[in-house]
Amino acid sequence: MVPGRRHKRKPAKAPKPVAAEAEIVAIGLQGDGTAIVADKTVHVPFAAPGDVAQLTVTGTRAQLTGLVKESAVRKAPVCRHFGHAREDGPNDQKMGDECGGCALQHLDTDYYNAWKQGLIRQALSREGLSHVEVLPLLSSSPRMRRRAGYSVRWIGGKAQIGFLAKGSHRLVPMEECHVLDPELFALRGDVARLCEPLFRLNPTAWFTCFVTLTDTGADVDLGGDVAEEDLDLAAREALTELARAMKLSRLTLNRVPLYVPGPVTVTFAGSPVPLPPKGFLQATKDGEETLQRVVLDGIGEAGHVADLFSGSGTFTFAMAKRANVHAVESVPEAIAAINTGRNQPGLRPITTQVRDLFRQPLMPDELKSFEAVVFDPPRAGAEAQAEQLAASAVPVVVGVSCSPKTFARDAAILTAGGYRLEAVQPVDQFIWSPHIEVAAVFRRR
């Protein structure tokens, strides 16, 4: 090599697909089957443990092409879009039957429930908490999801809406869905039409349209490659007229309001509260109510409670029926929503604070006035706050989490600090997916 001249590396060659036959030995953390092929673990979507499968293997991924023997825990999926694809779409766009939403419709219910419990047991075991009981799943029913993120692209001269196939940017137009609320699913054609004025400005744009069912109707945020300042008068007028015809509760573009005919509210434990654009909301109403029951049972008769990572008040208003509540959240719009709803009849006093609990957790001196603390952090967990709780004298802590891994880490911190964790309650709002939420009560020894 010439001195001073950087050697240019050749790009690595993509592995060639190889045909193989193997037994599926387990389901991995992301819901794919796993098999051993040529002494290497490969991941196989839509496979069931006990299947003897024909595979096309590329690197560590494999496509299921046929079954030599069908697993005893395999069952027929309920949706036509599960696990099958075709590539015959217009304009060289790959279209498909299968969406990327569900990974586990093909598993027997008992096996599915045990597998989700197993995810939690594995996470607890890694943190030295293998003795903790994992209770049976409390699951949402099908067709209950009240939030969705639709993908929209301009294909074949019109706006096409659907979901993305697993591990792909390929758009899958949907004809049925057994997860979404039927009202939410029925809106997809209208949402596609909302994007048409934007595609006239930028036909190559990508949009992820978040739709939420609220007390006052559908709340739609068009998130994508067109900004509010890019809109011309014709686009603004078209969007306003479409939103009015759809009777939307609100239309925003990348969270910037375009059409807001009145207040947009959701109800937490009987209390209507304003919902910020794309504001956090539990995925299903019955899942929300289940988590509220676990939290209320956990705090018991506590009269002064801190609600940390409170959001817009999922637990705040339920607890305020029996206790004084101090809600803490880093998002100002969420705290503003709680402030708007906190003076309703039948509620005990609610105080609020905008504070980043990752960087500035409540310290033991600040926690000493509370008889119970509830925390419900994002997926990253509440490590910094758990460390301060572990050093505090709070009698009861209730933890809620959408990540068994970070929950187990935080639980280990609390138990090392003198709390007793007796059992963990799984709550399955994301049916047929690898996601699972947990709630648990920690009591001072």
Automatic annotation (TrEMBL):
Ligand binding (S-adenosyl-L-methionine): Q282, F309, E329, D376
Superkingdom, natural source: Bacteria
Keyword field: 4Fe-4S, Iron, Iron-sulfur, Metal-binding, Methyltransferase, S-adenosyl-L-methionine, Transferase
One Pfam family in the UniProt entry: tRNA_U5-meth_tr
Leader sequence residues: none
The keyword 4Fe-4S belongs to this UniProt entry's keyword annotation: yes
Gene3D superfamilies: 2.40.50.1070, Nucleic acid-binding proteins, Vaccinia Virus protein VP39
Entry keyword annotation includes Iron: yes
CDD domains with a match to the protein in the record: AdoMet_MTases (cd02440)
GO MF assignments: 4 iron, 4 sulfur cluster binding; rRNA (uridine-C5-)-methyltransferase activity
InterPro entries assigned: MeTrfase_TrmA_AS, NA-bd_OB-fold, SAM-dependent_MTases_sf, U5_MeTrfase_fam
Catalytic residues (UniProt): C402 (nucleophile), C402
Similarity field: Belongs to the class I-like SAM-binding methyltransferase superfamily. RNA M5U methyltransferase family.
Protein name: Putative RNA methyltransferase
